[in-house]
UniProtKB/TrEMBL annotation:
Transmembrane segments: none
Stated family: Belongs to the CinA family.
Positions of the MoaB/Mog domain: 4-170
Gene3D superfamilies: 3.30.70.2860, MoaB/Mog-like domain (3.40.980.10)
NCBIfam families reported for this sequence: cinA_nterm, molyb_syn
CDD domains registered for this protein in UniProt: cinA
Name this protein carries in UniProt: CinA-like protein
Top-level taxon: Bacteria
Entry-linked SMART domains: MoCF_biosynth
């Protein structure tokens, strides 16, 4: 079965509301073994919603819509679905009674506009909504199935789990399983990683994809099989190949800050941090790791108060790392210091220094510190320098 998702609501197009519903539905469909090939976001316009549904039915067996089932005049999903199926809307007194009972239970008066919610396309199967006033419904013809759910996330999730999944399993015979495992890599560029696993990214099952974020890379392995165990085996085989090809650049299922915190705990080492940037990207990244406070003895944030070229920045990073390690009696000191001025391309040299019981390690790389993303890249480079040392020492 192939599926498409249509998220309905002008607020989604205006950026006022983030569409979390589609992400949830996509995850749930994948777990149920249903391919999701496309997601569409459309505003509260009857003609455009109708067109989106008809187009989706031309490509997919299953279309799931969320939103636009409220009582106001801009809630036009019911009308659009009816038009897409060339059917009239029908009034259901039982639905209105349910809506009225819900308002009575809340000791609130029901508005006349709520009567609109008692209409569904002719022939549709009504899905009662005990969590809200917007009834959902399911409608089928020879093109496929459209399931229409409320846009309120809590209501949508409840109905998806209690009604949609049983429908797919019991009535549509969906028995396959899709599992997804996400691995994290760092220290190689996206293009290099892509070249090393290019053949895996071309295969049909399991599928392999890559995405970049803050100089860290997510590798997603998705496998389809008739059972959880079979899908797990397919993923494990592919993961073994990726581990062989990426070697120490592959972190595993945990992200970089978590891996660093785990290695510090395993080796029973403490860390002090010196950052020459007021934004403190290394500290911000480390705070994403749970229980890091036990390993992080102290932090000094000290932006430059005098000009420094690349060599001076490197010396300052090392001096700062050594000073904080002494001050807080930590096993390791990590220093980060950008030079004063960017080059003609806008990139600034950032120096990193790691002070260890046996010596020091230095690294200097250029980053565009004018953007938050560039500073996050610098934070990743610093943590990866620390990770490499900890990984070597734990072997």
């Amino acid at each position: 079965m192939d599926a498409e998702i249509i998220a309905i609501g002008s607020e989604l197009l205006l950026g006022v509301t983030i569409d979390t519903n589609s992400a949830y539905i996509a995850r749930q469909l994948a777990a149920a073994g249903v391919n999701v090939y496309r997601k569409t976001v459309v505003g509260d316009n009857t003609e455009r919603i109708t067109a989106a549904i008809r187009e989706a039915l031309g490509r997919a067996d299953l279309v799931i819509c969320t939103g636009g089932l409220g009582p106001t005049l801009d809630d036009v999903t019911r009308e659009a679905v009816a038009a897409a199926f060339d059917r009239p809307l029908e009034f259901h007194q039982a639905l209105l009674d349910q809506i009225a009972a819900r308002f009575a239970a809340m000791n609130r008066p029901m508005s006349e506009s709520n009567r609109r919610q008692a209409y569904v396309p002719a022939g549709a199967r009504i899905i009662p909504n005990p969590r809200g006033t917007a009834p959902a419904f399911l409608i089928e013809d020879e093109r496929g199935t459209v399931i229409v759910l409320p846009g309120v996330p809590s209501e949508m999730r409840y109905l998806f789990e209690t009604e949609v999944i049983p429908y797919l399993r019991n009535e549509r015979g969906i028995t396959t399983v899709i599992l997804v495992r996400t691995l994290h890599a760092v220290g190689l560029g996206e293009s290099v990683i892509g070249e090393r696993i290019a053949d895996l990214m071309q295969q049909a099952n399991p599928t392999v994809g890559i995405s970049a974020k803050r100089a860290r890379y997510e590798l997603r392995i998705g496998a389809r099989a008739e059972s959880h165990a079979e899908a797990e085996a397919l993923i494990t085989q592919t993961e073994a190949i990726i581990r062989e090809r990426l070697g120490p650049y592959l972190l595993g299922e945990e992200e970089l800050p978590v891996v660093v915190a785990q290695l510090l705990r395993q080796r029973k080492l403490t860390l002090a941090l010196y950052e020459g940037m007021i934004q403190a990207p290394v500290l911000q990244a480390l705070l994403a790791a749970p229980d890091i406070a036990a390993q992080l003895r102290g932090v000094e944030i000290h932006p430059l108060d005098r000009p420094a070229d690349e060599q001076a920045a490197s010396d300052l990073a090392a001096a700062g790392a050594s000073a904080v390690a002494d001050r807080w009696q930590s096993d390791l000191g990590l220093g980060v210091q950008p030079a004063t001025f960017p080059n003609e391309q806008g990139f600034t040299a950032v120096a990193f220094a790691l002070i260890t019981p046996t010596g020091e390690r230095r690294l200097t790389r250029p980053f565009d510190l004018r953007s938050s993303e560039g500073r996050e890249f610098a934070g990743t480079a610093a943590l990866d320098l620390l990770r490499r040392y900890l990984a070597e020492e734990s072997e």
